[in-house]
Amino acid sequence: MSYNKRKRFITPGFLINICLFSHLSSYVESCSFQRSLQVSVPHTIAAGYVLSKVDMDRCQTETFDISSSDPDFTVKADGTIITSHTATVPANGRIFSLHYPDPSGQMAVMDVYLVRSTNEVENDGVLRRSKRRWSPIPFNIIENDVPPFPKDVELVGSDSSATYNVYYTVSGPGVDEHPRGLFSVDRNTGLLRVHQPVDREEFPKFTFQANVFDRVTNVQTDLPLPITVNVDDVNDNEPTFSGALQFSVPEQSKPGVAVGQVKATDRDQEGTDHTKIRYSLITGTDLFSIHPETGIISTVSSNLDREVKDTHFAIVEIRDMGGAPNGLFSTGTATIALGDVNDNPPTFTKSSYSLDVMENLGQRLLLRIPVEDKDQVNTPNWNSEFVITKGNENGNFKIERDPITNEGLLYLTKPLDYEATNNVKLEVMAKNQANLTGTTASWLSIPVDVNVGNEDEGPEFSAPTMRITVEENTSNGTLLGTYTASDPETKSSAGIKYYKVVDPGSWISVDENSGQLKVANTIDRESKYVQGGLYNVTMKAVDASGKTGSGMVILEVVDVNDHTPELPSAEMVVCEKIGELGSTLVVAEDKDGPPFSSPFSFQLGAKNDGKWAVKSFNGTAATLVQTKELPTNVYKVPLVVKDLQGMGEEQTVTIRVCRCRNGACVAPQTSTVLGGWGILAMLLPLALLALLCAVLAFVCMTKEENKEMDDMGDSGGILLKSNTEAPGDQLDSNLLIVPASATADKAGKGSMADAGFTVSLAKGGGLYAQQNLLHQSSGLLFSDSHNGFSPGQYNGGVQYGGGQFFTGDNLAMDNASYFHQLTDSAVNHSWQTNGHVLQKKLTYLGTMKEECYADDILHTYVFEGLGSQAGSVGCCSDQGNQDNLDFLNTLGPKFQTLAEACAKK
């Protein structure tokens, strides 16, 4: 098929635009045209005016007929559209239709639009040009056209070509954009060409732009024109299946039951015959059919039996062009699975069963009954259920299904009795969990004969239980009845002995030969052994062979009025309430039952003191109410309670009237009584205080003479300031250097030099005393003479680092002691000044007579040495034996200094 090669001429009078529809099929025998046509015409069209021409090259013109709906226009045999009469076109245009047969034989319609030309002569006779768009209708090409290429598409014309010498250009998709180089335009003529085949399924339409320019100035002479090129579809894609061809339908389905729907798609243009799909079955038509338009598969036969064939296959064809022979097609195989229905009952593998069972056997499996079923395994249509329909009236058997093998399991649930029956005929039916459907078959049954074997059994009582009614308190020896047994085979009671097995209250005696039952002890209905008025006695019968049988005697104990109502013995509480009379509820109990118990009657005893009144509350209780306000105390109230038969006696109710908290009496304030340990705990502090006083007395009665103490060589003992709570400073001692001549001057008895006492001055003002540490170079000795220091000589004066001398209260640990500071402003200070200070202190301490030299308080020491017998360094720290002071010789240097300071002359 070639494109219309007829050139379009643009005249000032009108412009004709025509867009031809391409052939829809590759077959020669079919042709068709575009759906619409637009033509620009003047206001008045003369008869014989040619509007356009329809391409008839591939149509069979001898049989092809095109008719017009408007009598003013007609179509010639070659496809030329002309006016048959003079016609006018209004300002809003004019439309008519062309009718022609399509390839299927149906009449198709093409609309022709007549549009008024924009170049018109106005009333003044002057030709005026108005702005308009040129060539607005779309162009068409056919997809996958065959070579040779390029092929002409259509002329692109502009009215400006009548005034200017113009050239044409195009740009956009298909030209200079993807897909590049598909279209081009002849610059001189405006003829649009296509250069290669186009696949409509990839590019259904192209829209690009045409421009017209003056050749001299290269200026656009008209507005740009959007060009639309539609790609006409050809039937080049066969339909494809869009879903899985897997379906299912229940077996035994009736004709017309839907199986499933086949779905297909076609890539060709929608709404055309190219995508009009028709469905058909190639195989399987004996059982199934398919709707040609919807693709729904249905059954056509009721002979679908899953047990014969569970899956069927049918070949499905899908063809476009509405199923026309020239349509493209595809085939696929549809798989149709038959769903199971319970159309087969289970069947037994044997027609009957027989088995032997000994009597008196316990529960056990007796028989396995296999079945077969053609339905789908492990579904309700296959799973079996078994029922014993006959022979199990006594409930000796039960039947269940084995979930794995689907067999029936026949069980013995309770022993058989040969004497009752020696053969049991059972009938067992096999069913399915699902009901039968789609079949006329029914459930099947088979007989099962059970032969009961005999064995020698023990005696049997005349009845498993025997009930006897007896009043409580019946006299001992009263005959209650006879409970006998017999041999089940001989029905004889000869040689059978009778015994009690259980008689919790020992109320019954049994004659072992006759089975007579008599009262052996008092029968009490209120006994714990009686439950609901019944008392059970278990009996045993033994035959000559030693076999036993058991039975039970049930005594129905009848109540008698042998108990009176009883009041609670516990103390009852009435809480004090100011301005109110207290009361309490008294509840009585009677062990007897009706009519020997409630309702009770309550009244005060003859000896009541009038402080309480009684009021009935209900059948078993009464309220005791105060007649006046009563003080806190315990009260005894006599109360007579009688049952419905008038039996009762006087009893005493104990009532405590008290102050309450949360409904309970508040305990009164009582003195505390101490036990032995409490008394000891109180006396212990007094004993410790007495011991402390004894220690003070011992220390303060120390004799005046000095005690000689041995030097322990403990150079770590030091004396610290005692008027501070903080630990003593770490001291650096600087010995006072005394002239050597002074060491030989021992002023008299009792001097500190005799005691080996050396004084050193600390940087912090503390005094160090060490025994047997007399430096020959220091020359400083202390004398206990009344005049203070013995005059002596010294070589270098006092040596110390901090410039301070010493503080006297470090020597005697006295909180009230003197504080004296000596400075080293000059070494000219004589040792007599120093001596006066120390002598005054020692003299004061020596004249304290029986008083302790210092208060018994705690002082801080930098070092106390290891533990000793003396314990604390306080003067009253240890009583000990006042006559045995040997332990003072082992106290160490720091304690010797303290002892010398405290000692008297």
Q: From the helix content, strand content and strand pairing, which structural class follows?
A: mainly beta
Number of domains: 6
Distance between the termini: 160 Å
Largest sheet: 4 strands, mixed
Question: Percent range for helical residues?
Answer: under 10%
Outline = flat
Number of helices: 4
Q: Low-confidence segments, ≥5 residues, pLDDT <50?
A: 1-30, 120-133, 703-722, 728-828, 849-857, 874-881
Measured on Cα atoms, how large is the radius of gyration?
70 Å
Strand order of the largest sheet: 1-9-8-4
Mean of residue pLDDT values: 76
Strand residues, percent:
25-35%
What features would you highlight for this structure?
4-stranded mixed beta sheet; Immunoglobulin-like; mainly beta; 6 domains
Question: What would a concise description of this structure say?
Answer:
With 905 residues, the chain is mainly beta. The protein contains 4 helices and 57 strands.
Task: Summarize the helices and strands and which ones pair or pack.
Elements lengths: L35 E6 L2 E2 L4 E4 L13 E2 L4 E3 L4 E4 L3 E2 L5 E8 L5 E10 L3 E2 L5 E2 L10 E4 L8 E5 L10 E6 L11 E3 L5 E4 L10 E10 L10 E8 L7 E2 L4 E5 L7 E4 L2 E2 L12 E4 L6 E3 L5 E4 L11 E9 L9 E11 L7 E2 L4 E6 L5 E6 L1 E2 L11 E7 L6 E5 L6 E5 L10 E10 L11 E10 L6 E2 L3 E7 L7 E4 L2 E2 L10 E6 L5 E3 L5 E4 L14 E9 L5 E11 L13 E4 L7 E5 L13 E4 L7 E5 L4 E6 L6 E10 L5 E11 L1 E2 L2 E2 L10 H25 L32 E3 L21 E6 L4 E5 L37 H4 L18 H16 L46 H10 L3
Parallel strand pairs: 1-9, 12-18, 20-27, 29-36, 38-45, 46-52
Antiparallel strand pairs: 2-7, 3-6, 4-8, 5-6, 8-9, 10-11, 13-16, 14-17, 15-16, 17-18, 19-22, 21-25, 23-26, 24-25, 26-27, 28-31, 30-34, 32-35, 33-34, 35-36, 37-40, 39-43, 41-44, 42-43, 44-45, 47-50, 48-51, 49-50, 51-52, 53-54, 55-56, 56-57
